[in-house]
Specification:
Helix 2 runs parallel beside helix 9 and helix 8 runs parallel beside helix 9. Strands 1, 12, 13, 14, 15, 16, 17, 18 and 19 form a 9-stranded mixed beta sheet that branches. The chain has about 425 residues and is an alpha/beta fold. The chain folds into 2 domains: about 180 residues, Alpha-Beta Barrel (TIM Barrel); about 120 residues, Lyase, Ornithine Decarboxylase, Chain A, domain 1, CATH 2.40.37. The protein binds pyridoxal-5'-phosphate (PLP). The site of pyridoxal-5'-phosphate (PLP) has 19 residues, from helix 10.
């Protein structure tokens, strides 16, 4: 599939006049359509709810859009909970799927009425002691072993730090009931960035079977099953995109085959997608500021891994378009780099691209999830601004760029700040 920017070169030339690079830009129209399709694909389930994984993109303006489209939030930290609460996501609209959870985070989650998803059997007593067991509670499942699909091994839950073993989760529900819980859910995240319509249906089948068994052996009927995240996006042009309607239909089939005959036709399906919701609807735009000809050909740009870390830490592929040169032949081989003193700070390695000139605008695709949010301040680099391309074609600043003052702000207890010269 050809990967096309959601902004034209002409539009971008106007945008950078007002908002210099680097920045992440998001496509409101595409994002809204995508969420509507997700909800349509699961409309067969009256209780369906997508809890957007905030860690994928914690921008409040985007979270507001997702809220308008009927999403809740999935949080795994205190600040994500605070943000959700400030944006008026209420109680049942917030899932708290954390691990190695500090006590104060459980206390805060309970206070704002978020649904708590317990990562471990020992967290039952931990939560009971620090905040008390709420009426609604969820447990995270880890079947162990490897998670296989028809095209081979997808991931390795046996090596993952998350969730409870099959024995533990079966013991957890009766224990939680004893402690006062009344409404129960189950959660599992067994494979990441899956590019097959089979993942959710197979995960659902696995979880539905456990849910039926739990009902048989303990008499506890789960109220919701949370398929979590893991639905992937086509980062590479040769990848084929997931079809959310086929995925929803696959989950429906498993539901009717397993849950309905067991008298569990009222279970709500929840999801916690991050990447699939916002990933394709963001891009990092950066300017080529240097070219370097040594043992290889390098293009140095004004963004770096502080703005987008996935290529540096996972070797992840992000497609790159040289704006305005879409029709030129890709006859130059480049490493496209940022300015960190780390050799892994490369957005592309040995990438065939059109000839790049200094000043060219580079559009790095699919940064809408786990892009800005993974950013960091290594080398004292500052994080970029974020822009929203609104449905009406206008562009809005939805986060300003960090400034040196932000970077030094944690020294506000001493006099070092008095000596700082911010005049650059
Ligand atoms: C990261 C995460 C998600 C979202 O994962 P994606 O791959 O972005 O869909 C959902 N739930 C939990 C608990 C997570 O940690």
């Amino acid at each position: 599939m050809e990967k096309k920017p959601f902004v034209t070169y002409e539009q971008m030339k106007e945008i950078v006049k007002k908002y210099p690079t680097p920045f992440h830009i998001y496509d409101e129209k595409g994002l809204r359509e995508n969420v509507r399709n997700i909800r349509k694909a699961f409309a067969w389930n009256p209780g369906f709810h997508e809890y957007f994984a905030v860690k994928a993109n914690p921008n409040p303006f985007l979270l507001k859009i997702l809220q308008e489209e009927g999403c809740g939030t999935d949080c795994s930290s205190l600040t994500e909970l605070m943000l959700s609460n400030a944006l008026n996501f209420k109680g049942d609209d917030i899932m708290f799927s954390s691990n190695a959870t500090p006590a104060e985070e459980y206390v805060y989650a309970k206070k704002i009425g978020a649904i708590i998803n317990l990562d471990d059997y020992t967290h039952i007593d931990f939560l009971d002691k620090c905040a008390g067991i709420p009426e609604t509670i969820c447990c995270r499942y880890n079947p162990g072993g490897v998670f296989k699909m028809s095209n081979g091994i997808m991931d390795n839950p046996g090596d993952a730090k998350y969730g409870m073993t099959p024995e533990q989760i079966r013991a957890a529900y009766p224990r939680l009931k004893e402690l006062g819980a009344k409404r129960f859910g189950m959660h599992a995240f067994l494979a990441s960035n899956t590019l097959t319509n089979e993942y959710y249906p197979l995960l659902a089948k696995t979880m539905f079977e456990v849910a039926v068994d739990i009902k048989k052996t303990t008499g506890i009927a789960l109220s919701f099953i949370n398929l979590s995240g893991g639905v992937g996006i086509p980062y590479r042009p040769e990848d084929s995109a997931n079809d959310i309607f086929a995925i929803g239909e696959g989950v429906r089939k498993a539901y009717e085959e397993i849950l309905v005959p067991a008298g569990m036709g009222d279970v709500a399906i929840y999801t916690e997608m991050g990447r699939f919701v916002t990933g394709p609807f963001g891009a990092l735009v950066t300017t080529a500021v240097h070219e370097k000809h040594i043992h290889k050909e390098y293009i140095g740009c004004d963004a770096c891994a502080a703005n987008l870390m996935r290529p540096a830490i996972y070797g992840a592929y992000h497609h790159l378009t040289v704006l305005g040169k879409e029709d030129q032949p890709c006859d130059h081989k480049y490493d496209v780099t940022g300015s960190l003193c780390e050799n892994c700070d490369k957005f592309a390695i040995d990438r065939m691209l059109p000839k790049i000139d200094i000043g060219d605008l580079l559009y790095i695709h699919d940064t809408g999830a786990h892009g800005y949010s993974m950013g960091y301040n290594y080398n004292g680099k500052l994080r970029s601004k974020e822009l929203l391309l609104c449905e009406d074609g206008s562009v809005k600043l939805i986060r300003r760029a960090e400034t040196p003052k932000d970077y030094f702000a944690t020294f506000d207890f001493c006099d070092i700040l008095d000596k700082m010269d911010y005049d650059v």
